[in-house]
Amino acid sequence: MKKAVVVLSGGLDSTTCMGMAKEKGYDLYPITFHYGQRHNIEVEQAKKVASSYEVMDHRIVDLSFLQQIGGSALTDDTIDVPTEATDDIPSTYVPARNMIFLALASAYAEVIGATAIYIGVSAVDYSGYPDCRPEFIQSMTETVNLATKLGVTSETPLSIETPLIHLTKKETIEEGLRLGVPYELTTSCYNGGTKACGECDSCKLRIKGFKEAGAKDPIPYMIPIEWN
Ligand code: ZN
Q1: What is the count of structural domains for the chain?
Q2: What CATH number is attached to the domain comprising 130?
Q3: What's the CA-to-centroid distance between 67 and ligand 1, angstroms?
Q4: How far is the CA of 190 from the centre of ligand 1 (A)?
Q5: Cα–ligand 1 centroid distance for 158 (angstroms)
Q6: Confidence at 184, pLDDT banded by 50, 70, 90
């Protein structure tokens, strides 16, 4: 069986990637990063998602260094999570997060003999993060193949699969619903309560996506939401 490492945050996008990798016939090896995120409830949700997919192994990686250095509203309590979109890179950007995640995922992939890494970045309905752009993924693919034994000796290079990169949130959700992705186990809220706030940038994107897909989000919200 071919193997894929899935960068699994416990959010909507990465969980959809689990469903997509499964459909492609991969054995799933999710990896979840605990980096002191404000919404660290997502690590618990990631465990539930991994269980529901009966994965081969689920690694939880401690990256508390990212919290020690801060520099993001997601890792520093003194920086507020914004409620409005901005033209600039928002304060929820975490310094070099996806580069660090993909570097560690590629090391893991090499050890277990995986040929693909799935990561749920989107360049469409994204928050302006530089490490969600296709040019970064392309560059990182070259880098991980230059940096690893796998890249040098294997006939098939390690691929970084970004099946959501050109999808809107609506399209991602439609695809996930078709695949039976367990959205009730996912969390997207940056504020990280047991109920989603419904007001942060991430909640707004998620709610809009479900509405446009003509579906009701199965997770609870702190404020009333008008579903279609
Ligand atoms: Zn929220």
Answers
A1: 1
A2: 3.40.50.620
A3: 20
A4: 5
A5: 35
A6: very high
Q: How far is the CA of 204 from the centre of ligand 1 (A)?
A: 7
Domain assignment of residue 192, yes or no: no
Domain assignment present for 9: yes
**Ligand 1 centroid distance, CA of 53 (Å):** 26
Overall average pLDDT of the 169-177 stretch: 97
Give me the count of residues in the chain.
228
Ligand 1 center–CA 82 separation, angstroms: 10
Q: Please give the average per-residue pLDDT across 179-203, as a whole number.
A: 92
Range 200-206, long-range pairs (CB < 8 A, 24+ positions): 200/81, 200/82, 200/83, 201/81, 201/82, 201/83, 201/84, 201/85, 201/90, 201/92, 201/127, 202/92, 202/127, 205/125, 205/127, 205/169, 206/12, 206/169
Whole-number Å distance, alpha carbon 136 to ligand 1 midpoint, is 27
Q: What is the pLDDT of residues 72-124, one digit of tens each?
A: 888 888 888 777 777 788 888 889 999 999 999 999 999 999 999 999 998 88
pTM over 0.90: yes
CA 206 to centroid of ligand 1, rounded, Å: 9
pLDDT band at 36 (very low <50, low <70, confident <90, very high): confident
Ligand 1 mean position, distance from CA 209 (Å): 14
pLDDT of 127 reads: 66
Extract the tokens encoding 51: 């269980």
